[in-house]
Amino acid sequence: MGKVLFFDVDGTLVNFRGQMPASARTALKKVQENGHQIVLCSGRSRVQIYPWLLELGFDGIVAATGSYVEYDGEVVYRHFMSEDEIRRVTAVLDEADACYSAQAGNRMITSAHHRDRQLARFRELADDEMIEQIWQQIELADHLDQYEDIEKLVYYESKMSVQEIRERLSGLCDVTESSFERAQNDTGEVTCCGINKAWGMQKYIIHTGAAKADTIAFGDGPNDFDMIEYASIGVAMGNAVQELKDRADFITKNIDKDGIAYALQELGLI
User: Fold this and answer.
1) DSSP H or E segment with residue 108
2) Which end of the chain has fewer beta carbons closer than 10 Å to its terminal beta carbon, N or C?
3) Which strands sit side by side in the sheet containing 68-71, from one edge to the other?
């Protein structure tokens, strides 16, 4: 069996303008031809992943920061937040006057007020195509704790810092700086304690029978720390945050300077 390669999406395979370098497309195809598996490993929920990216033929998907795992088109693992966790998290986010939404596999859930605030935020960051993709399956609800399939929450424009929210939710949930854009203190992701990308990677390799020694992870942001440390080889993009580079075994070039292709060549995979 070949290697199993886990790739973050935003800032790793796709830049923050929603573009993927042609060299990365070619390299991914070549690495599969050489007998290795390629797996998306993203903080995005399944429905938020670009259709054109999925069409490249990944062997598997780890989505929603490890809460959702798919292999060969089959869902093999999912983890949901409890009613109590949702209620307590949203109470803190409401106190922080943050706008937030829930990721729930094939859709996103938010209130009408939060939708408008988040759309305004996204219009500052992304083009219309990206906005349409991210918000194509939006469901409006005033109370998230009525749902049983919520995987994680993402929030923006919080009046509390990430550290303050992390302290308030300590022992209940994990809080990480946002990975969709450059880390900002008013933006973050809330997941169940211990549910992270490394957890999803572990579920994937157990299901497929792969060995941890054959895993390689590629990332750039705060929610990639655990995956970089878990993998046998952790690769940080040249544009990665310094804290990730400090954890990595190998630092490649910037995403827009053919960083994925360069790393795969240097590691002898293509």
Assistant:
1) strand 107-110
2) N
3) 74-78, 68-71, 60-63, 37-41, 4-7, 215-219, 233-236, 250-251
Q: Give dist(CA 146, CA 164) in Å, integer.
A: 26
Sequence-distant (6+) residues with CB within 8 A of 58 are 38, 39, 40
pLDDT tens for each residue of 144-168: 999 999 999 999 899 999 999 999 9
- Taken as a whole, the chain contains a residue count of 270
Pick from 254, 263, 189, 207: nearest CA to 5:
263
Give residue 185's pLDDT band: very low, low, confident or very high (50, 70, 90).
confident
What are the percentages of helix, strand and coil residues in the chain, rounded to 5? 40, 25, 35
What is the number of other CB atoms lying within 10 angstroms of the CB of residue 194?
A: 12
Hey, what are 260's tokens? 């994925």
Instruction: State residue 179's pLDDT score.
Output: 67
Contact 223, 239 (CB under 8 A): no
Residue 114: which pLDDT band, with cuts at 50, 70 and 90?
Answer: confident
Closest CA to 247 of 229, 221, 267: 229
